[in-house]
Amino acid sequence: MRNMILLGMLALGAAGCASSSERESVSDAPAAPPQATADVRDSGGMTKARANIVQVGTDLRVRIEASGMARGAYGAHVHETGRCDPPGFTTAGAHWNPSGRKHGKDNPAGMHKGDLPNLLVGTDGRGIFEITIHDAVLSGQGGSVLLDGDGAAIVIHAAPDDFRTDPSGNSGARIACGVLG
């Protein structure tokens, strides 16, 4: 009986040690990188896309996944203000442009930090892209801070972006918007 009690105490002690080391390894794990997400909704409140922005070093990795949209190409941009009042979503302001550039990757004086590729939606209503915005941060200090005092938004436009016409790439009306947070 005495041996059984001793064995039980040893087992409990070993279990306690294992739990302690497991807790230490969890607390030593690297923190997840900062990120922001948005449900991008149309003026009727239907979710049309999901946006995710992750801080990777001194860059931002942007991923947009659309579903339930009509087949076609749509301009997509990061806008400077975190407001999405329907129906026109004009409260999202202009494209995020902390460096004061012109619009579009094909514009010799471009491009805005908020200029993104066109969102290409297939016959299944789905589309996806991922892009890196260099030399930008989600929050903190510096000239290219995305989530400043008034936030930021992701906007999808009705037409494809021509990547050169300032200020919005001739991408038409704003048809969906999501506040990053």
Element order: H for helix, E for strand:
HEEEEEEEEE
Protein structure class? alpha+beta
Amount of helix: 10-25%
Radius of gyration: 23 Å
Number of helices: 1
Largest sheet: 7 strands, antiparallel
Question: What topology, given as strand order, has the largest sheet?
Answer: 5-8-9-1-2-3-7
First-to-last CA distance = 61 Å
Write up this protein.
- The protein is of the alpha+beta class and 181 residues long.
- The chain contains one helix and nine strands; from the N terminus they run H-E-E-E-E-E-E-E-E-E.
- A hairpin with a 4-residue loop joins strand 1 and strand 2.
- It is 14% helix and 30% strand.
- It starts with a helix and ends with a strand.
- It folds into two domains: 30 residues; 145 residues, Superoxide dismutase, copper/zinc binding domain (Immunoglobulin-like), CATH 2.60.40.
Could you outline the blueprint of secondary structure elements for this entry?
Elements lengths: L1 H26 L7 E8 L4 E10 L2 E8 L5 E3 L1 E4 L39 E3 L5 E7 L19 E5 L16 E6 L2
Antiparallel strand pairs: 1-2, 1-9, 2-3, 3-7, 4-6, 5-8, 8-9
Which key phrases capture this entry?
2 domains; globular; two-stranded antiparallel ribbon; Immunoglobulin-like; alpha+beta; seven-stranded antiparallel β-sheet
Give a summary of the structure in a few sentences:
With 181 residues, the protein is an alpha+beta fold. It has one helix at 2-27; strands at 35-42, 47-56, 59-66, 72-74, 76-79, 119-121, 127-133, 153-157, 174-179.
